[in-house]
UniProtKB/TrEMBL annotation:
It comes from Theobroma cacao (Cacao). NCBIfam families: F_box_assoc_1. It holds the Pfam family FBA_3. Residues 77-351 form the F-box associated beta-propeller type domain. SUPFAM superfamilies: F-box domain (SSF81383). This is F-box associated beta-propeller type 3 domain-containing protein.
Amino acid sequence: MASMPTPVIFDILVRLPVKSLARFKTLNKLCGSFIRDPRFIGTHFKYGADEGNDVCLILSYMQHGNLNSIVHILTVRDNDELALVEYSAPVSFDSYQILPSCYGLVCFYGLHGGVLVCNPSTKNIVRLPDIDAEGIRSLSCGFGFDRMSGKHKVIKFLEPLEAEYPFTDNLRIEIFTTGNNSWRTVRYHPCFRFLHHQPPVFAGGFFFWITADATDPGGPSSFSIVSFDIGNEIFEAISPPESVSEKNWFNLYLVELGGELWLVDLDYELDQDRKRMDIWIFKASIADKKEQWVQETIVHQSEPIDTTRPVAFDGEEILLHGFINGLGNLNWYNLRTGSFRQLKIKGVLSQYCHASHHVGSLYPVLH
């Protein structure tokens, strides 16, 4: 391999699976230098994200013991029924919230403030430094990737212990960038009233939240959507779809699918049978500075779908996670035909798992 031109070696390695490259990293010095190079890591991830039509899911759940917890991370492809254990690791005992996979890494945070980041493919995990938490409590975290710097970022929300549910006027926002060993405070405008314990959604280089109107924080229909540019670290407000702007924000939630922001309407006032779910996809053109919401609707002919949530999108089908009577807890919905098909999975020990789209990567947990 040493006699081969460098571009040829690069082109060969960039097409190999993450697990194969992780083994080569220790066996071959030249391969190791490639695999640690940020440009190679970025190109390899993009190649993996663009290749193949089958969707890879990451299924995560916690197993709690007397003294500690174990996080189990499994992967399964749409064309396979068997979920493979990708990584299992013991962590300190806590109640954890697992966030969606982001550029190959998974972040989860505990009720007592601990934040961990792992790469299931390379089997590396780190616990981020703790924040001085005297007199404050941890609310939620978000996990995203800054394409300009090539680094992941964790955003964390904290509030005073005496704060009242569901809002706080003394919110503290901290940012952690991989490669640094400390948290730093981010300023935000007090007109944004972030909802209690609601983690942000990361899509297209931005974090997004549903926020309450500071002038009428108790009003159920007084809400807006706030974005946070992960690179420039600037907050801005965006307008929700006009048809839901007066709805109760308790019935709305945000999710990232296919790299885009989706707003899901769970208000079933007009559909007592709960067989319909309305979704709006946020389309933004940076060049034209235009924003619009495109509506899609999921309808089941006979069964309620109010306990399901969209977790993946392949351009034609939406994967719903949650039980539909007679089917199962993972089902594809075809937007063109309006049909459902069950995704059968074996090897998952818990039905209470978190599911998200996943592309394996070589991104290190600390870099």
